[in-house]
Design goal:
The complex is a heterodimer of chains A (about 260) and B (about 500). Chain A is of the alpha/beta class. In chain A, about 30% of the residues lie in helices and about 25% in strands. Chain B has about 500 residues and is α+β, with helices and mostly antiparallel strands. Among the domains of chain B are: about 230-355, Dna Ligase, domain 1, CATH 3.30.1490; about 415-505, no CATH class. The chains are: A alpha/beta (about 260), B alpha+beta (about 500). β5 (about 105-110) of chain A pairs antiparallel with β14 (about 415-425) of chain B.
Chain lengths: ~260, ~500
């Protein structure tokens, strides 16, 4: 296959095309191309803050705000994994679970929306093992997303997270580091979130509505931080904005002049 | 091969018994303490097996003695059998103190049968064992010559000449039969070899005739090897023992290359491999690695063994070094060569290799897939199956639970043991209004349920299994949990207890 460079007046697009052609021959040169692919969450407000979505090929940290929010933490991670899996390109999801995390918050059971056939769970005894397994899995290009759940504060410092970021850049998948206790040290991850559960709206019959999270973006390398309320629909496998409760909808009234005159009459 | 004085040698190796003073091992036999094993000095002084300890002490008051420990003797015999694995993979134990090795086809590696025998005996002698060995065509002949004869090599075809002068006990007969034959006047094997067989069988049992046939080669006697014989074995011997880990890995890589050639010729790949490291002073370490798909690629095999050695490397102490390293493929399956596309990357094979590496590092049981089962009890509805055992993921269908809510029906996390909580609820069937979990009180805002799940009455014979009523509860701050009441009020128990089983997202 020959590549023709037509003119040198505009070198940057040609260089980009050349890189892309070379990468399609030689997949191992993918890493220095810095292909910035992102996973859009489907919610325009959050995607705008993130610059298009969560950066693939990087490590993002999630932690739970309070000890009773471990379920919400796992749920958000599973929701992101289900979003990636919806691409259906045959790549798998790996969930690395620290043994103590399973004791503290329970084993994985029914991941909201994520099909169990694309999931492999690795149970590791120590935090160091979890970090090693995370690095190995991030380097593998056949993995779409890795979720590592760590319950104790071990040796996760700046150098460890930087190694993980480099490994994620080689592999190209999404790396999620779940921590049961929010960390105080600095880290080299792309974004840092805190997840808490929130009371969602009822459905029409007074039962439970969609799962609702309160997401706080604490650290963002590519934009501002923020705080949002978000719901997840496991059947559609999509994030939906949280429904307003019926109480609020009822009290909203039309205050325009036409309505006033209609009521007076 | 006969370890003549196994019990006393074991104690002497552990420095519990002196070598140059008489020492015996005793055990209670027929209501008296009798000698079970004697060392060389004691035998020279005239003490025999079966003599009472009191008599022996009367003869020699300063006799040292110890209690018999047959388990420890068997353990040592197994260790020696492991060590003999370096000569041939077919090693069988001949209780109580012998080993049978089948060296067909292995003798040329050592320069012949006689050099093999000499090497074996000399190495065992330096390790402190008193050993006698014999090589023959048949097991019976070798046993007899080792125990009662004095030569060590019986040339093929003339087993009868060597057997003839041996006493009848060399045929591995029961002592009563030997005594009965001695009463009649038959003391040597030569006396029975050429006699008519029917009267012998009628008078002394069919076993006698069978043993004669086995010894002279007319009957076949197979050896029961201790370890299964692998289909592919490659090994490397070193004149100078090696101890560095990178040397060991390099040797394994080289052996994997030879194994690759063997496997490729047959079109097979290995699913389970074992590397045996033989230390120079007798200990043997075995490292096993399993894969989820048949593999014969050298780089992959080296990587798997590197991970395994990194995980268990501390327990493999080289000591003075390893002088034999053997790589065997225990299980091999058909492995066809696939055409790999140039443009499309091969995700399945790479993912399988990742799973193998994680399994080699942490153990194959820690890398699992969640497989839904057709059981209605929540703890068993999803089973964790090791990933390498799951062949295809196509038929992992989720069990359909009736979907009657916008949220999830089943929690994302399930506790292995349901946590007991204190709950205030209406009797008899009402959902909780407030509950206390992990020392925090939660007020209930919304409830869905109950979902009644009855336990399997056919499993519990005493009828103690209690029905559970599950509730999906959302507390006022939004935490969603899966709570159940155990036992129906007034129908099964008077005090139903409440448990928290899972967390929703």
């Amino acid at each position: 296959m020959t590549v023709i460079i037509k003119s040198m007046t505009d070198p940057c697009p040609k260089l980009h095309d050349l890189r892309r052609a070379l990468t399609s021959w030689q997949p191992s040169w993918h890493s220095w191309q810095h292909d910035e692919r992102r996973l859009g969450l489907g919610v325009p407000v959050i995607d705008a803050v993130l610059g298009g979505g969560l950066l693939l090929g990087a490590v993002h940290e999630l932690s739970s705000a309070r000890p009773r929010d471990h379920g919400a933490l796992a749920g958000f991670a599973a929701a992101l994994a289900a979003l990636i899996n919806a691409n259906k390109d045959g790549r798998q999801i790996v969930w690395i679970q620290h043994d103590f995390a399973a004791v503290e918050a329970g084993h994985l059971y029914d991941l909201c929306g994520l099909p169990l056939s694309s999931l492999v769970v690795v149970q590791v005894p120590r935090v160091i093992d979890a970090l090693w397994a995370l690095e190995e899995t991030l380097k593998c290009r056949a993995v779409a997303a890795v979720v590592a759940e760590i319950a104790e504060e071990g040796s996760i410092d700046l150098t460890a997270t930087r190694r993980l970021s480099l490994a994620a850049r080689d592999g190209g998948g999404l790396g999620l580091l779940l921590r049961h206790r929010p960390a105080a040290t600095s880290s080299a991850s792309a974004t840092r979130w805190e997840v808490a559960s929130a009371s969602g709206a009822c459905d029409a019959f007074g039962g439970l509505g969609h799962t609702t999270f309160t997401l706080s973006l604490v650290k963002n390398r590519y934009g501002p931080c923020g705080r949002w309320l978000l719901s997840w629909d496991p059947h559609e496998r999509a994030f939906v904005p949280p429904a307003l409760s019926l109480g609020v909808a009822e009290t909203a009234r039309d205050r325009s002049a036409r309505a006033l005159s209609a009521r007076a009459a | 091969m006969w370890l003549k004085r196994l019990a006393t040698d074991r104690l002497a190796r552990c420095q519990l018994a002196p070598r140059d003073a008489p020492f015996v091992v005793v055990a209670p036999v027929k209501s008296a303490l009798r000698l079970v094993a004697v060392n060389a000095e004691a035998a020279r002084l005239g003490l025999t097996i079966g003599m009472a300890l009191a008599d022996a002490r009367a003869m020699y008051p300063k006799l040292g003695c110890a209690d018999a420990d047959p388990d420890a003797d068997q353990h040592l015999l197994s260790a020696v059998a492991d060590w003999c694995d370096r000569y041939t993979p077919l090693v069988g134990i001949d209780p109580p103190d012998g080993l049978i090795l089948d060296i067909t086809g292995c003798a040329h590696l050592f320069g012949g049968e006689a050099p093999l025998c000499r090497d074996l005996m000399q190495r065992l002698k330096t390790q402190g064992f008193d050993v006698a060995a014999a090589i023959a065509d048949t097991v019976g002949c070798a046993w007899g010559v080792a125990h009662y004869g004095d030569s060590s090599l019986v040339p093929p075809g003339i087993a009868r000449d060597y057997l003839a002068p041996l006493p009848l006990a060399a045929l591995r007969l029961a002592p009563e039969v030997v005594d009965a034959l001695a009463d009649v006047g038959l003391k040597r094997i030569a006396d029975v070899l050429d006699r008519p067989r029917a009267p012998l069988a009628a008078r002394f049992g069919a076993n006698l005739v069978r043993r004669i046939d086995q010894a002279s080669g007319d009957d076949d006697e197979p050896i029961m090897p201790r370890l299964p014989v692998p289909p592919y074995v490659v090994e490397r011997r070193f004149a100078e023992p090696i101890a560095l880990e990178q040397d060991v890995l390099g040797t394994i890589e080289h052996l994997a290359g030879e194994l690759h050639r063997l496997l490729e010729r047959r079109g097979e790949g290995a699913r389970q491999l074992a590397a045996a490291l033989f230390r120079a002073d007798g200990k043997v370490y075995r490292i096993e690695v399993g894969t989820s798909a048949p593999v014969r690629d050298v780089a992959r095999l080296r990587r798997l063994f590197a991970e395994k050695l990194a995980a268990i490397g501390d327990t493999c102490d080289p000591g003075f070094g390893f002088d034999v390293i053997r790589l065997s493929a225990m299980v091999a399956e058909r492995c066809d060569v696939e055409q790999v596309g140039l443009a499309t990357p091969d995700h399945a094979a790479e993912f399988a290799h990742l799973i193998d590496r994680l399994g080699a590092r942490f153990g194959l049981r820690r890398v699992v897939r969640l497989v839904p089962q057709d059981v209605h009890i929540p703890e068993f509805a999803v089973a964790a199956v090791p990933a390498h055992a799951v062949k295809t993921t196509a038929n992992l269908a989720v069990q359909v639970v009736e979907q009657d809510s916008l949220g999830s029906i089943r929690p994302i996390r399930l506790f292995a043991r349901p946590e007991p909580i204190e709950a205030i609820a209406e009797v008899p069937d009402g959902p909780p209004v407030r509950f206390k979990w992990r020392r925090m009180t939660h007020d209930v805002a919304r409830v869905e349920g109950p979902e009644r799940i009855a336990m399997e009455w056919w499993r519990d014979k005493e009828g103690r299994t209690l029905t559970r009523d599950y509730f999906r509860i959302e507390s006022r701050d939004g935490v969603r949990v899966w709570v159940y009441r155990e036992g129906l009020y007034e129908r099964e128990t008077t005090e139903p207890r409440w448990f928290l089983h899972g967390l929703f997202a």
